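Researcher: Next sequence.
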Amino acid sequence: MVEAILLDRHLIVPASAYLQGEYGQSGIFFGVPVQLGRRGLERIIEYELTEEERQALERSASHVRETISVLE
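Model: Next structure:
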């Protein structure tokens, strides 16, 4: 990741990013594919998911939100 940023590689890697509608999620940091370059996160890569994958992502995001609410 550091190399992608320092050398402006525009590398696509999995990373936690703040979602603002991507993958149907908002207001949550979540692990998704991102493109990294000299400015850090350049964009979130949004792949088309199957229904099963979408449901799994929603369940996972729900667990993250529940954990956050317990910690607050």
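Model: The chain has a mean pLDDT of 95. The chain has one domain: 2-71.
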